[in-house]
Amino acid sequence: MIRLAHLSDIHFGGENVAAVEGAAEILRQGGFDLTIVSGDLTQFGAVGEFEAAAAWLASVPGPQLVCPGNHDAPYLAWWERFFAPFGRFSRLIGPAEAQTFAGAGLAVYGLNTARGVQPRANWSKGQISRAQSREALAWLAAAPGEALRVAVVHHPLVEMIGGPMTGKVWGGEAAARALAEGGVDLVLSGHIHAPFVWPYPFGGGCAHAVGAGTLSVRERGVVPSFNLIEAEADQIRIIAQGWSGSRFKPLRTWAVDRRKQNARPG
Q1: pTM (predicted TM-score)
Q2: Are 238 and 227 in contact (CB under 8 A)?
Q3: Quick check: 26 pLDDT over 60?
Q4: DSSP character for 221?
Q5: Beta-strand relationship, 235-243 and 225-231
Q6: Dihedral, CA atoms, 199, 33, 183, 141, nearest 10 degrees?
Q7: Residue 191: which of 66, 69, 37, 42 has the closest Cα?
Q8: What distance in Å separates the CA atoms of residue 55 and residue 33, rounded to the nearest whole number?
Q9: Which of 50, 62, 96, 190 could form a disulfide with 86 if both were Cys (CB 3.0 to 4.6 A apart)?
Q10: Which CATH number fits domain 2-257: 1.10.340.30, 3.60.21.10, 3.40.640.10, 3.10.20.310?
Q11: Cα(100)–Cα(242) distance, integer angstroms
């Protein structure tokens, strides 16, 4: 069985301190093939916030895959936001544009859907290019046929129906279709601060979008939470762990059929 921890939107600088430490305690118990953070490590992209995030990541076991979110571009340092929006992330956390992990039975590719500036008023929304999708699929295609294939983004590529906020990802639907039809099993995201699981309406419904909640005080009607993902040969379980104020306990569980190897393209 493959076990993943999927966290998002910790927002250091505005984190729920007790919930963040509670999540760390679970991670330190071990047994995870990979810990994934799908963006928004910081609140304002400040250096001190990145340093706190880096220290926290160093305090929990690896391996880890961390991608940036829209809050990880500096909010106040406009010159950096325009000319090097993810320079701080790259310097203090890791690669910003793409991240990869390959392990036994597992292949994970992270894509950056955040942008420092955009030709629209709300820069917090997402973008993904066809080139990004092609590069992700080319890398994932090289994994063994039986491997669980996972893409990680910050913004949900297709809107969650009834969600507390939107991602409005330019190119999102085309990317979701390409990933689903290209054989990806899961597309993990954050941004909306609420956990969800639902199948993409592409590629025979074999690919599932999975959203993680937040570990910050920026709650949007859902308690601080993160996901535990357990993948077996025929089924994938996603357990959203909700913070009770003193500990995490299961908030909601989804069980979805896993894509069959002979259902993959090529």
Answers
A1: 0.96
A2: yes
A3: yes
A4: S
A5: antiparallel
A6: 160
A7: 69
A8: 21
A9: 96
A10: 3.60.21.10
A11: 28
